[in-house]
């Protein structure tokens, strides 16, 4: 514990108006901190002179308390080095039965327990084959560092506060301009709400557009973030039918209490399906008839390899019921943690105000740098360069998988994105496969299916290539093939044993 923290602890507990001497109070506070392991063995304490000065007491008062603690083996003094917490076998005082029972009853709430069981992403941000991450090593940090430095200093103190009003105004304008050109999104700067990423964007939509207990519909399978964040926000989550043309509301069961539907029409995660124009218009029509808000997740729209990006669903919407969700984490680097919403004009002020009330956002220096990064053309240049690189990585990964697995595996189309969706012809139980790929020092993603879909879950994996250098893709696929072969062999052995 740094000296200033010990001073803070003592300052909170010393009673200068009471009858107990300050020397004894200091002794009791430090002794209890040692017993409670707040002060750990070997930790250096401030000198008696320093502590006395900071507490505003005489040095002899602190020295006498230290002397008693040293004599009772709570502290030890080393000549020329200072005073330290001693090695001791003393344990905290016994807790009463009532206090013990109280601690045991202090458990998670029902919501907390539910969140603990919800799906989550992989805990790595690089390597073969972490899904959905960009290659941070390819990002022009030399430019980013210069842009950040431009906005850090006493001359930019207006950027040191909270980001009110939906975010840094020049960034909102730059995002709106970029989306109008690249994604055919119909919006003005005031409709852009800057967030700390897709998760916060989903949470804000859930809180403002639905009530606890309302139903949110998601694609089946979908990205794990949607069911996790929507459920944590108090909504119920139900599956929608997903086919080769994307989400189909017409083929799905949509209860009356459904309020939201989340979709990724331009590059569905994880299957890679692209929603054609006819299905998009059908989706908007059914959303109108069922009075649903549509969350359009366009998380990796920049990386399209078979032509120009597909225009957004939002650009086709004439009822102002589509909320467009985007992120910079895929296009730049994962830790940038900046995303955005494009909301209907009549809700823009409400969303901006709610974002400020709920999250008290900041990062204005980063937002200012990003506005320059977009406005000066660095973002577009980076996208063009990485689109070529990622296309080559995807092609190499696809070829390596086809050589290793042949007809035993079916891969998603090569339209866009930073991952491939792979489906095995034979059952490959995901619990066993997860263990086997870990043994090969690999990471793969497993699709998030809603409802009971054990066979689909045990045939499908997601392979990211964004953070995998080309030179390592072939070796990674070879290790994956070994892990899959061991998994399937174990499964066949278990099946034979069950028949005996």
UniProtKB/TrEMBL annotation:
CDD domains: AAT_like, WHTH_GntR. It comes from the Bacteria. InterPro entries: Aminotransferase_I/II_large (IPR004839), HTH_trans_reg/aminotransferase (IPR051446), PyrdxlP-dep_Trfase (IPR015424), PyrdxlP-dep_Trfase_major (IPR015421), Tscrpt_reg_HTH_GntR (IPR000524), WH-like_DNA-bd_sf (IPR036388), WH_DNA-bd_sf (IPR036390). Pfam families: Aminotran_1_2, GntR. Gene3D superfamilies: Type I PLP-dependent aspartate aminotransferase-like (Major domain) (3.40.640.10), Winged helix-like DNA-binding domain superfamily/Winged helix DNA-binding domain (1.10.10.10). Keywords: DNA-binding, Pyridoxal phosphate, Transcription, Transcription regulation. One of its GO terms (molecular function) is DNA-binding transcription factor activity. Residues 20-88 form the HTH gntR-type domain. PANTHER family: HTH-TYPE TRANSCRIPTIONAL REGULATORY PROTEIN GABR. In the C-terminal section; belongs to the class-I pyridoxal-phosphate-dependent aminotransferase family. This is HTH-type transcriptional regulatory protein GabR. It comes from Paraburkholderia caffeinitolerans.
């Amino acid at each position: 514990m740094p000296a200033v923290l010990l001073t803070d602890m003592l300052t909170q507990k010393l009673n200068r108006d009471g009858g107990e001497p300050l020397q004894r109070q200091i002794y009791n506070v430090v002794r209890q901190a040692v017993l409670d392991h707040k002060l750990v063995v070997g930790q250096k304490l401030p000198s008696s002179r320093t502590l006395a000065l900071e507490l505003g007491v005489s040095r002899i008062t602190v020295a006498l308390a230290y002397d008693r603690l040293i004599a009772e083996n709570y502290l030890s003094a080393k000549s020329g080095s200072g005073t330290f917490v001693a090695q001791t076998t003393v344990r905290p005082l016994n807790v009463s039965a009532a206090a013990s029972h109280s601690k045991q009853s202090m458990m998670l709430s029902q919501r907390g327990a539910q969140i603990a069981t919800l799906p989550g992403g992989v805990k790595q941000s690089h390597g073969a084959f972490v899904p959905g991450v960009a290659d941070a090593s390819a990002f022009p940090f030399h430019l980013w560092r210069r842009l950040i430095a431009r906005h850090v200093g006493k001359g930019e103190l207006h950027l040191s506060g909270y980001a009110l009003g939906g975010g840094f105004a020049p960034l909102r304008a730059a995002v709106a301009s970029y989306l109008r050109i690249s994604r055919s999104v119909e919006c003005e700067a005031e409709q852009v709400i800057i967030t700390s990423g897709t998760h916060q964007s989903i949470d804000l939509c859930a809180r403002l557009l639905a009530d606890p207990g309302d139903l949110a519909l998601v694609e089946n399978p979908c990205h794990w973030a949607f069911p996790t964040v929507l459920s944590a926000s108090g909504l119920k989550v139900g599956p929608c039918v997903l086919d080769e043309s994307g989400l189909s509301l017409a083929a799905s069961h949509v209860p009356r209490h459904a309020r939201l539907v989340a979709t990724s029409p331009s590059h569905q995660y994880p299957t890679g399906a692209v929603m054609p124009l006819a299905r998009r218009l059908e989706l908007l029509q059914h959303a109108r008839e069922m009075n649903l808000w549509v969350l359009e997740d366009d998380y990796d729209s920049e990386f399209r390899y078979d032509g120009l990006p597909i225009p957004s669903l939002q650009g086709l919407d004439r009822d102002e019921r589509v909320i467009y969700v985007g992120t910079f984490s895929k296009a730049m680097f994962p830790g940038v943690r900046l995303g955005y919403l494009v909301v209907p004009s009549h809700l823009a002020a409400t969303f901006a105000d709610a974002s400020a009330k709920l999250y008290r956002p900041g990062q204005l220096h980063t937002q200012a740098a990003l506005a320059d990064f977009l406005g000066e053309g660095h973002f577009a240049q980076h996208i063009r360069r990485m689109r070529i690189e990622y296309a080559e990585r995807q092609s190499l990964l696809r070829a390596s998988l086809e050589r290793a697995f042949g007809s035993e595996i079916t891969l998603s189309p090569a339209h866009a994105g930073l991952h491939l969706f792979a489906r095995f012809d034979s059952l490959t139980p995901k619990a066993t496969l997860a263990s086997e790929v870990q043994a090969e020092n690999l990471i793969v993603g497993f699709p998030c299916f809603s409802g009971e879909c054990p066979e689909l879950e045990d045939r499908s994996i997601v392979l990211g290539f964004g953070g995998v250098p080309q030179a390592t893709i072939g070796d990674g696929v070879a290790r994956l093939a070994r892990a899959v072969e061991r998994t399937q062999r174990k499964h066949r052995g278990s099946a034979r044993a069950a028949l005996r």
